[in-house]
Design a protein that fits this description.
heterodimer, A: 447 residues, alpha+beta, 4-stranded antiparallel β-sheet, 15 helices, globular, disordered N terminus, B: 182 residues, Alpha-Beta Plaits, 2 domains, 4 strands, elongated
């Protein structure tokens, strides 16, 4: 294994910080989508954004601000990237998320026909994420980002979404999110799960060997592909009132409700994993980054502690499938960046207030198909892999058909029936976040 | 869910949760005998021994290797829970399975051998033919069928108890009583 050598050569100066590292909590942020109507203006925009983008080597302090820049296929086309280069991108990226909707389970209310405009249209070219530790700094930096496209008549701001992450890390369903992140070789960050070897860098960043020992398919020329990563963003509306009502109707006490909710998620609200604390929440455990991701599932194959169909166990089965001979969990890991949007539904409210709230889900990884799409389609939307084809993820599954959720319990399992959808896709895009020198390459195109 | 909706991008026909998966190869000249010998040896490995019911890949229902056209062709035919193309990368990084197949594939044309995983993947995908027709006579994944067998064994054990008839009189057990007569 040449892992050590690769470690040393991960080019943190050239990788966008947002691709590799999470911002310290709490933060506030804004997602901007831009349309390039004029190629020269588009390249000037990229030139200006390049000056604002932050390398992974410069990330880390709580008071800094990060700007991450990514492009859709249409965006790269609008910038004049040569066709041979466009053709070299992953097929899923070229198709775009809307074209993949049926495969992803984004149908019915979650279908592209119902998506918030301009998500899923050919208008979306550039995605910019600005995250900052406080509102004032965010405004200042957002101003700079706005300046980057102001006075460029050929660039239009077509969508803006404010977002935030609370200091508790909790999202609208009330759970601390974003705990189970994989470590990446060469990133300089230690794993939060000491039982999971850091991923080969090529699982997340293009241009390095991945877990198969090979270089992931990388867009050409290397000046464009190297140190880039694919980024998925999805705006997910959460039906918090429906979720609370569903739980309320199936529990007689608050403790029972909290337990049902925890069984669905795989963690207690504090983030404490059921695998470690199966019977009661343990807020100290939940907030301890050295312990809240330090666990496996193999000692609990039937899911008495954490149900095999729980959200967190589906999204990352850890060692639960190691004996199956058909799946290598390390090929299906991803960097996740969840942020919240919209105001939290006040505690105890179970009537829908009509307010749009939810999660902006962000994925970063080198493989759209075998990472994001695999996890979404095989592990969240389906139950074949746990021997329960009729069950999908109890929290985020599409629940088109009558979905149920089985909770292993002695002496008799509990089964929740008729789960309605709690998460509706409002739209999203497949993007490519180039390395910093690739941003310059894009700005300097002369096609 | 899933099913035929994504047929355009998911080779192999699905019936319920299960997909068919068939590969067809050309046997290298002069390799028919060594290939037969390799398959005979395979048949004697754990999981492939008749009655073992424990193949390394726990999500396949059955698998067969067929030599045909005077031993000039080889088919590998199986049924798999889930869309198999989603799991191709996993197979190609799974050491034990690959090593097993390596011994077989060495006797057919176009196989350059391990450890070039990308080449193996291209080789396998190039050999795949989607069925023109496919049917199954029972539903359910391997996992569900194993569970069903376990539950039935337990039920038969209950029925063998001398007081089973009395025990099954409770109204909640009526569906079980309905299955108890034969």
């Amino acid at each position: 294994m040449e892992g050590g050598m690769e470690n040393a050569s991960l080019e943190l100066d050239d990788i966008q910080a947002g691709a590799l590292f999470e911002r310290p909590s709490p933060y506030v942020g804004t997602y901007l989508l831009l349309r390039i109507a004029d190629r020269a203006d588009g390249r000037e925009l990229v030139r200006r954004l390049h000056r604002l983008a932050i390398p992974a080597s410069g990330a880390g302090s709580a008071d800094d601000t990060s700007i991450t820049v990514a492009f859709t296929y249409r965006g790269l086309e609008a910038l004049g990237v040569p066709q041979t280069s466009l053709d070299s991108f992953a097929p899923e990226f070229k198709q775009g998320m809307a074209a993949r909707a049926e495969i992803l389970g984004d149908t019915g209310e979650s279908g592209p026909d119902h998506w918030e405009k301009p998500l899923g249209t050919a208008e979306v070219h550039v995605a910019v994420a600005v995250l900052s530790s406080d509102e004032a700094t965010l405004q200042a930096v957002a101003e700079r980002a706005r300046d980057a496209h102001a006075e460029l008549p050929g660039v239009d701001l077509i969508w803006r979404q404010d977002c935030y992450q609370l200091a508790t890390g909790r999202t609208s369903f009330g759970f601390k999110d974003g705990i189970g992140q994989p470590a990446v070789e060469g990133s300089g960050r230690p794993p939060s799960n000491p039982r999971e070897r850091p991923l080969r860098a090529g699982e997340i960043i293009l241009g390095y060997p991945d877990e198969t020992g090979e270089l992931p398919p990388m867009p050409t020329p290397p000046e464009l592909g190297r140190n880039g990563t694919y980024v998925v963003f999805r705006k997910l509306h959460t039906k918090v009132a429906a979720y609370r009502s569903y739980l309320r109707d199936r529990a007689t006490t608050r403790a029972e409700r909290d337990l049902l909710a925890a069984k669905m998620v795989g963690r207690w609200q504090s983030g404490a994993p059921l695998a470690v604390s199966p019977d009661a929440d343990d807020p100290e455990l939940g907030s301890d980054p050295r312990r809240n991701n330090d666990f496996l599932y193999a000692d609990d194959p039937s899911g008495f502690k954490c149900p095999v169909g729980a959200h967190a166990r589906r999204a990352n089965p850890r060692d639960a499938l190691d004996g199956e001979g058909s799946v290598d969990v390390r090929l299906h890991r991803m960097v996740r960046r969840g942020t919240s949007y919209g105001p939290m539904l006040p505690d105890g409210v179970t009537e829908d207030d009509g307010v749009d709230r939810g999660i902006i889900f962000v994925f970063a990884g080198a493989h759209l198909k075998r990472q994001f799409e695999f996890v979404k389609t095989q592990w969240l939307n389906d139950g074949i892999f746990i021997g329960a084809p009729l069950e999908s993820d109890p929290l985020v599954g599409p629940h088109h058909d009558s979905t149920r959720f089985t909770i292993a319990r002695r002496p008799i399992r509990r089964r929740l029936q008729d789960l309605p959808p709690f998460v509706i896709t409002r739209g999203g895009e497949y993007c490519f976040a180039p390395g910093l020198s690739a941003l310059r390459w894009l700005a300097d195109l002369d096609t | 869910m899933g099913g035929r909706g994504g047929a355009a991008t998911q080779p192999g026909i699905r019936v319920g949760p299960t997909s068919e998966f068939s590969l067809f190869f050309r046997v290298k000249a002069g390799q028919a005998q060594p290939l037969r010998a390799a398959l005979l040896a395979l048949q004697d490995t754990p999981g492939y021994r008749p009655g073992d019911y424990g193949m390394a890949i726990q999500t396949i229902h059955e698998a067969r290797f067929v030599l045909f056209d005077d031993d000039t062709r080889l088919a590998f035919i199986t049924s798999f829970d889930g869309p198999w193309d989603a799991y191709m990368e996993d197979f190609f990084t799974s050491g034990p399975t690959l090593a097993l197949f390596d011994v077989i594939f060495g006797h057919v044309e176009g196989y350059d051998g391990l450890p070039d995983v990308a080449a193996v993947r291209a080789f396998v995908l190039g050999a795949e033919q989607t069925a023109a027709a496919y049917a199954r006579n029972y539903g359910g994944t391997v996992k569900e069928i194993r569970t069903a067998q376990r539950v039935n064994a337990a039920f038969q054990q209950v029925l063998d108890h001398p007081e089973a008839a009395e025990a099954l009189q409770h109204p909640a057990l009526q569906p079980l009583l309905d299955e108890a007569a034969v």
